[in-house]
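Q: My labmate handed me this sequence with no annotations at all. I'd like to see what the chain might look like in three dimensions before we decide whether it's worth expressing. Could you predict it?
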Amino acid sequence: MRAVLMAGGSGTRLRPLTCDLPKPMVPILNRPIAEHIINLLKRHQITEVVATLHYLPDVLRDYFQDGSDFGVQMTYAVEEDQPLGTAGCVKNIAELLDDTFLVISGDSITDFDLTAAIEFHKQQKSKATLILTRVPNPIEFGVVITDEESRIRRFLEKPSTSEIFSDTVNTGTYILEPEVLEYLPENQESDFSKELFPLLLEKNQPMYGYIAQGYWCDVGHLDAYREAQYDALHGKVQLDFAYKETSPRIWVGQNTHIDSTAQIEAPAVIGDNCRIGARVVIESGTVLGDNVTVGSDANLKRPIIWNGGIIGDEAHLSASVICRGARVDRRAHVLEGAIVGSLSTVGEEAQISPFVRVWPSKKIDSGAILNINLIWGNTAQRNLFGQRGVQGLANIDTTPEFAVKLGAAYGSILKPGSRVTVSRDQRNVSRMVTRSLIAGLMSVGVDIQNLDATAIPITRTVIPTMSVAGGIHVRVHPDRPDYILIEFMDAKGINISKALEKKIEGAYFKEDMRRSQIHEIGDVAYPSQVMDRYCTAFETLLHVDTIRNSRAKVVIDYVYSVSGAVLPQMLDNFGADAVVLNASLNKNAMSATDREALLTQLGHVVEALKANFGVQVSANGEQLILVDEAGMPIRGEMLTALMVDMILTAQPRGTVVVPVHASSAVEQIARRHDGRVIRTKANPTALMEACQKNSNVVLGGSGDTGFIFPQLHPGFDAMFCIAKLIEMLTIQERSLTTVRADLPRVIHRTYTVRCPWTAKGALMRHLVETHPAQNLELIDGVKICQPYDDSWVLVLPDASEPIVHLYANSHDRDWVDDSLRQYRARVQAFVEREQETVAAQV
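A: Here is what I predict for the chain of 842 residues:
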């Protein structure tokens, strides 16, 4: 049998390790990852290997040559012009694959029993067998769901947190029959997981998943790289060591001198031709490459030092990576998680702070303390985008330097000369971040339409009218006053897709932004009549005469925080009486406690003025809380149900879009009005997309996110919602109190349980496997529905915190309380079992 070694990766998330090295050539225990893979193949009698190469192909080719020194026969296929993808590069060598063959990723460490997997493939008469494994946190991988016979039924490529229905993932190792390649186009980029396997599934070709026992680590990022080394040292994976075991679990190469006063704690690896000075302390978990020199009194706490590293006297290294030929001088400190790139120098008594990356061939001066990456820009993260946009602590995570780089990354995925709108709330910190984003965009040749301080509904309304590629809005986070939220919108004003987010992240992490010449630098314009465009669109969708005849009185609390608050003037033009509270722009963001105090104040004012209702507007014009004529707040699930009832009364047989966790009162109201309910994932982008994609949508959103009126613009809009409420209350001759009294009585409660990231995938799989499939909904998280009833429990993993949310919904209060208690205990018990298992393995 032949094996195809996928060795084309550039390893952008392993930078700076892979600046001058393809990822399969990164060393684990002083041997390239690719060599460990070839040793695994050889153990299972696979000795014909075809390596597909793209990034720095000569490095791997020069190392292995014809393979004879490694006991295999090596053949190479180089993708000259552009990468063809995981499947495309295999299609490119189809003439070499005339029998069953194995495809294995060049960037993973494993000791899977390939012989058993191949035997399984033959027994099942499979066309394609995916070798699968179970991992604690599957969010970085492709999730695969199989049936009782191990036949593959579903793929989910790199799921979001709440989409994790299993912890069984694709390892990138496949056993294939040659005929499956006939489904792939010639000389065209294609991917196994995204194109070929879904196509085979659609064609009902026999495709199976073999769940392998043993160790597997996708060395896809720096944490995984270090963990793979430590796991190998502690014997968690079967790998061949390059050196003799001179004492229990200490491996030392030839011609290496270790001073008699040095202390070495097992396990540790020290390569050939090394020199270890007096009183050096080498702690358990340390890996030293060949030709490494360590000065006297140095303290090495689990560093990984590549070939040719030089460590000075009294230097301290902690769980860091020192790349080829790098030098750490006397008394310097390189702290946990830091990376020193090839041929770089860390001066005497300098300090590299935890997780800081130094790119190759850099010099850190003596005594310097390096707290940021020594590259253009600031701290690198694994992901930029969260559940909603890019967010971080104001002026700590989200700094001007970060924003410049983010703007340049976004602009680099657009064509030169593209136009982008930029808007913000009125905070000084938002102004600072916005100006930095503009600088980054201009530097890559993107023109700016600067809307300045503008409510986000206005931004979303005008974007489709401006012939722009998209827009950016910067504001203080609606739920975290110490955080900045940066949202990216497409040409329709909808938050950008996950695919586009990944492109921006790719440009950001690769550090290869486009640089424009002086005459190509972007321009900044300040478009006029932005407010007028919004007001015109706003008016078009209202019965203005109805509002004018209503003589309504409304109290609006802007909580010192809404930019471009045009609603009072518009209502005044419509003949309604708008009393405005707290409309001045306060430089400090309001805390949740402050907003609650203002809400109480709003209730008193509504009562005193005998107003029709009051409303507190937040999130720069997106969200609202209502106060009825008696001064009582209406929010959350009550607000969702109220808005659905009013809009479907006004527009029967319409469609409403709500998040998966919204109360079942929505369905009950829809049945009264012959309406339709669509539920989406619990994130704002999913709500916006569903409102645009589906026909006859009259309302989207919830009391927590705000409400979407798709005919106006694709986002949430508290201002239009207020005007629409006045109109509907007038036409329907109702008050908020009477509407609320007519709403269905549904008990809807929530509870939060701590759950480590590493347990979320296994928890979701456990829930799916222990409930009847016909009772499950897997829109987002796992919803367990009761037959013949609107009762359900939803277990929803949080996208940004190590917690899961439990929701219980029913007419029966006791059922809700019992279900919450039961599932809380169930989740907690499962998490405890997982943690005990992990502790036992350690």
